[in-house]
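Sharing a chain and its predicted structure for anyone who wants a worked example. Both blocks are below, sequence first, tokens second.
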Amino acid sequence: MNRVSFAKHILAIRLFLGWFVLSQAVRQPHSPPSQRQRYLRGEDGASFNSVNAHLPKCKLYEDTVGSWKKISAVNTSAMALREFETAHFFHGGAGHALEFDSIWVPNGCSYHRFTNETIKKCLDYDYAKRQADPKLAKETKAKPFEIVFMGDSALRGIVCGISRILQGDEVYGPLGNVICGYNEVMHPISTSLAGHPYTFQSSTLTPHLDLTFTYVTTFERNHFDWKLEWEVEDERPRVLVMNTGAWDFDDIAREMNSRGVVAEDRCQWANQTAVAEHRADDFVNHTVVHELGDIGARHGVRLIYRNNHHNCRFGPTCADERLEALMAKHSQWEVWDNKGITKDVWVNQTWDGFHFDRHRVYSVEHHKMNIEQWHASGREAPGAMEMQLAQSLLNAVFHDCLENHFHH
């Protein structure tokens, strides 16, 4: 073969290879996503063999969109479990969540599972950051990091979930404090003590974290709007978490229960619609949404509305849709969604169709007995939904710390 024909032969090969690569590149966008791509998107059933794959951190409240996975499905081997934890959790693994029967997995992002130790790390980070600001240093040194909760027994259940993390174990507790009750003697804060704030302070944390809970029923009863204003204007906590709903719909729920009717997500009856509209009337819009929102903005208090979880008494969308639309118009209000996390599991994770705080369960031994009883009756161990809501709120409260101080 002479040099000319050899050069033509080489050119033909190059042209063919160039055409082949180009044709593959053109076809590639139409190819189905790989297992790795599907896994990173959070699609069900997708997995891939890489222990070094990290999903991006969840943005604020992104962790509330996802699905529940059976522990038996993700813990098929040590390698599979390590892949799962590496992908879906950062700065630590799933922790005590693996002791439940199911685990919550956000779509396409990873979140942090708090412990007493990592709560302290975020408190330290927050304290140092505020001490570096001359405008905040004096106030920060004088006051603990306080989260004020104002709502009914469902919100109390989330406070009790956080206190389990602070006191020991998500699954077994122990649990005993002035808000959640203790030793079968002091009952949890309820309607008989409505309107009075009670504070639990973890003795193991410095800087201190205070959890203050005030039982309230509706926006108007017992001058709830005054109490809200006093908390934000005078006490100035770092965060105020508010929720109402159960007592607004209580009479209707009792009537439905007598008929054997379970509430649907949206308003079913005209009287439900009337209550929902009343929850977002001019009084609420003026006093709770705007006046309180303005005060919170002035004093740097984060205002979080916890919307209602799925339950047998009333529909969460019915209760909150109009109110959330008002809050969306005021930049100081944040809406923390509880609907997604609870939608598929509330039936098995509420002991009466509404409460999920393992009522009057305190000691480690009592927790174990409670879990054995649920398993014996064919149900999943109680507490997974309650603890996920507690973890979700901590991810929102300490979002700045997670974003800037914690790493994969």
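Comments welcome. The two ends are 60 Å apart (CA to CA).
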